[in-house]
Write a structure and sequence with these properties.
Shape: globular
CATH topology: Archease, Possible Chaperone, Chain: A, domain 1
CATH architecture: 3-Layer(bab) Sandwich
Structural class: alpha+beta
Number of strands: 8
Number of helices: 2
Largest sheet: 5 strands, antiparallel
Radius of gyration: 14 Å
Strand content: 35-45%
Number of domains: 1
Order of helices and strands: EEEHEHEEEE
Length: 148
């Protein structure tokens, strides 16, 4: 399964074969776009984003010396917010600053879980460090495995 915008743009993310868990790669022209697309892939693995209205927003601020660790913490924070806020998310905005350390300011749009509208395909328990990576070639790429 993959998601595409139009013929001129790269796909935001793709799901890869994995035995028990959900594995994906998220792409972006910038690290911000890659991180937003990774968050979208994470949530689409659980719930159809078309059923989620961005009625509320949550702010996330993180800082780390390493972009890969920051990316892992960003996705883990989204899983944490899902669990603690009983909320599902459909929009992800990321701003990054790098000045010796990476600083992430994120805004996540979504709403509280409504089981009549939000059918769960999987429930993500955690983002794993196994095979987690961020790479920059001609575009940015994040690979992650989700424990479901």
């Amino acid at each position: 399964m993959s998601s595409a915008r139009n013929n001129n743009e790269m796909i935001p993310f793709e799901y890869l074969e994995h035995t028990a868990d959900v594995k994906f790669r998220a792409f972006g022209h910038s690290p911000e776009e890659m991180l937003a697309n990774a968050a979208s892939a994470l949530f689409k693995a659980m719930v159809d984003p078309a059923t989620i209205q961005a009625k509320e927003s949550w702010k996330v601020e993180l800082e780390d010396e390493d972009l890969e660790t920051l990316a892992y913490r960003w996705l883990s924070e989204i899983v944490f917010l899902f669990e603690t806020e009983s909320a599902v998310f459909s929009t992800f905005t990321v701003l990054l600053k790098e000045n010796g350390t990476w600083k992430l300011q994120g805004e996540i749009g979504g709403e509280r879980i409504d089981l009549e509208r939000h059918a769960f395909e999987n429930e993500v328990k955690a983002v794993t460090m196994h095979q987690f990576q961020v790479k920059k070639n001609d575009h940015w790429c994040l690979q992650a495995i989700l424990d479901v």
